[in-house]
Amino acid sequence: MTNKNRNAALNLWKKMRRRWQLYLLLLLPIAYIIAFQYLPMGAVIIAFKKYNAKDGILGSPWVGLANFRRFLGSLNFRSILINTLTLSVYQLLLFPLPIIFALLLNAMRNRRYAKVIQTVTYFPHFISTVVIVGLVFQLMNNRTGIYGSIYRAITGVVGPNLLASGPLFRHIYVWSGQWQNLGFNAIIYIAALAGVDVTLHEAAMIDGASRLQRIWHVDLPGILPTVTIMLIMATGQLMSIGYEKVLLMQNGLNLDYSEIISTYVYKTGLASTRANFSLASAVDLFNSVINFILLMTVNKITKSLDGTSLF
Fold first, then answer.
1. Which of 2, 163, 192, 214 is placed for a possible disulfide with 223 were both Cys, Cβ 3.0 to 4.6 Å?
2. Is residue 202 included in any domain, yes or no?
């Protein structure tokens, strides 16, 4: 180790000693990440084996890419992939909504009213998924819900069951998610807007810029690096739709539109009477590889365009 590297390491150690309380607080999340994100990577070998509990992970016979071929050659592979991509792209297309919401909140003159709106909109994020789905079912019930009551009051007949409609499942899933997470997702953009230089707004006002022009030429460019990073992360999780909400909203009538990769993994690996851990692991690994490729691709593109990237 050279003197320069030794001095750098010594300075780093001194800084860590001065702020040891902060590093102590990091121990718990670091332990969580190691325990639930890195250590399970060792079991990814199951995807290339015909796993059985008797022989264990290392003792189970090696089958190579047989599990991947089985999934790719299955009859429902096409529909599962299309459903996953449809929901993912649908949600990604609504990516600008939290940005627009944050810009509008930041532009409000009445700050107390803006704080009330912000609090009300991010509160649903802390409601559990089970409760959210229960609320959706109650509101959209064609007999006892608000939708059913209004429909019957207008037409005099019982309305169609929207929750049993496959094509409508996607809209209900995505827009209920937007209602739940819009305010919370806007927090990071509100924080970024707080860091925009006030003198830029003052100079724009002197030049006669309207509030809309200041949003477009001052606020939006000021938070553009944050928007780029969040877009990269959202694209890197394009295929990672949680199974909980989809599984709760599934029924026999909308299954052709609601079966996605994560629910297929859950049913194959845990919910089935003949659980196939190897196939479930292979499908999940396939999903993760696609996400990784998307993340690297988008990160490289944004880095070449404006120099903003995750790494």
1. 192
2. yes
